[in-house]
Amino acid sequence: MEHILGENWKIVSAGGSTGAAYYAHSEQKQLFLKRNSSPFLAVLSAQGIVPKLVWTKRLENGDVVTAQQWLDGKALNNEEMQHPKVAKLLSKIHHSSELLDMLLRIEKTEVTPENSLKTVKELIQNNSIQTLVLYKAYKYLESRLPYIHIDHQVVCHCDLDHHNWMLSENGELYLIDWDNARVGDPAMDIGRILQSYIPMEDWNQWLAYYGVENSTHLMQRMHWYLIIDAIIGYVWNYQHRKEKEAHQHLMELNQLLYQVNNWNL
Question: Domain Protein kinase spans what residues (predicted)?
Answer without folding.
Answer: 7-265
